[in-house]
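Marked as duplicate of an earlier ticket. Keeping the data here for the record.
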Amino acid sequence: MSEHDSQVRLFSWAAAMAELLPDLAGLYAIPNGGYRAKATAARLKAEGVKRGVPDVHLPVARGGYLGCWIEMKWGSNKPTEDQVRWLGWLADQGHFVTVCYTWEAAADTLERYLRGRIVKGEA
C-alpha cells in the first residue's frame, strides 16, 4: 500500500461514515504531491498551490480548534521541512494538526476530533 492508497481508503471510510458523522462531508484533500509536468506545476504555482500544505483538511471547529489538518505519510517517510513549517504555522493559528502513517490512524483521529475527544490544552 502507498500513501495514495491509504488516502483513498481514508476517503472511502469517510464516505461510509458520513451518515454517522455528517461533518465528514466537509473533508477534502489538497493535491500538492506527485509528479507534474513543468507546465502544469508552473500553472498550479501561479494559481496559489504551495509546497508543504498538509494533505487532508476538515474545516470543522471542535475542542477549541478551528479545524483539523492531517499530513499523510507512509513507511519511513518523514514530513519535509516545508510540511513541518506549515504544520507549525497552522497549529499556531489554532488548528489541530497531526501526521498519520495509516488510513486507520487518520480515521481514528478524525472520529475522535469530531466526537470532541481531542481538546485543545489537554494531553
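See parent ticket for discussion. The chain has four helices and four strands.
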